[in-house]
Amino acid sequence: MSESSAPSIASEVARAVAGLDVEPLREAYWEQGEFVHLERWLPPPLVARMVAEVERVRPGVNRSFIPRHKKGGSVGSWALAEQAPTILALYRAPALLTLLARLTGRALHPCPASDPHACALYFYTEPGDHIGFHFDTSYYRGARYTVLVGLIERSSSRLVCQLHTRDPARPPRELRLATEPGTVVIFNGDRLRHAITPLGAGEERVSLSLEYVTDSTMSPVKRFVSNMKDAIAYFGFRNVFGGRRRARAAQRLTPARRPARYTSRLSQ
Ligand SMILES: [Fe+2]
Q: Ligand 1 mean position to 136 CA, how many Å?
């Protein structure tokens, strides 16, 4: 599939969004402490195209192991920009951005092309693959929101979501979700504590993470810290600091509000 198919992906997403009753969703999002999930929401043909792209990028998976925190594989934005046009089109779909704005009450933007987490695939393929409890902390000046999309789910792993942990006025609540193909989870990264429980033998789980921010600028110090974390915990040093590939991908992954500082750095 070529990038010229992006408009048809955008139309498919627009149809899926049009089928939602957004107001009850918005109420649930806020009642649950800025978290909501849509079970098997994305249409199966769209999911099938993304799963085909999972197989295309699978040879480039970078595996990492951080004792007591995470074990698993990742493929970052730059590889997806080259090989996964459906995933890229979903990430930038105007109807999805509009839905997110209606749920969160804020204008959200895709992350800069220099961020390997902007959209990324996470592979849980070996026994014990997992990620411990964490927040999707923002290194940007703006708030960070995460959209998780289930693509392959043949596992006993669960996405464990702890609601209201940062709201002393609300009793904590825990949900354990199977991210089935097409299931979408939307949350404010600084509000939802979450984890993926360890994979069992002979199981597999692959999910897509889409990251959006209210302000996509970042201080140079935080950019460095973010890059180091990404290199060690997710994508490997060669991918994170490989300027040439980053620059190539930037031509394809151009968010609406890429700040000037990224434009000049990426064009070097
Ligand atoms: Fe996370």
A: 5
User: In angstroms, what is the span from residue 81 Cα to ligand 1's centroid?
Assistant: 21
Q: What is the 267 CA–ligand 1 centroid distance (Å)?
A: 30
Q: CA 240, 245, 246 angle in degrees (round to 5)?
A: 60
Q: What is the pLDDT of residues 108-124, one digit of tens each?
A: 999 987 788 899 999 99
Report CA(195)–ligand 1 centroid distance (Å).
7
Q: Tell me, in angstroms, the distance from the centre of ligand 1 to residue 3's CA.
A: 28
Tell how far the Cα of 208 is from the centroid of ligand 1, in angstroms. Answer: 11
The tally of domains found in the chain comes to 1
Can you give the pTM of this predicted structure? Answer: 0.85
Give the CA distances from residue 30 to residues 25, 50, 103, in Å, rounded to whole numbers and listed in that order.
9, 29, 8
Query: 138-159, pLDDT tens digit by residue?
Result: 888 889 999 999 999 999 999 9
CATH of the domain at 175: 2.60.120.620
d(CA 89, CA 3): 8
> What range does the domain containing 231 cover?
3-266
Which residue is associated with the tokens 């006993």?
156
DSSP state of 167: -
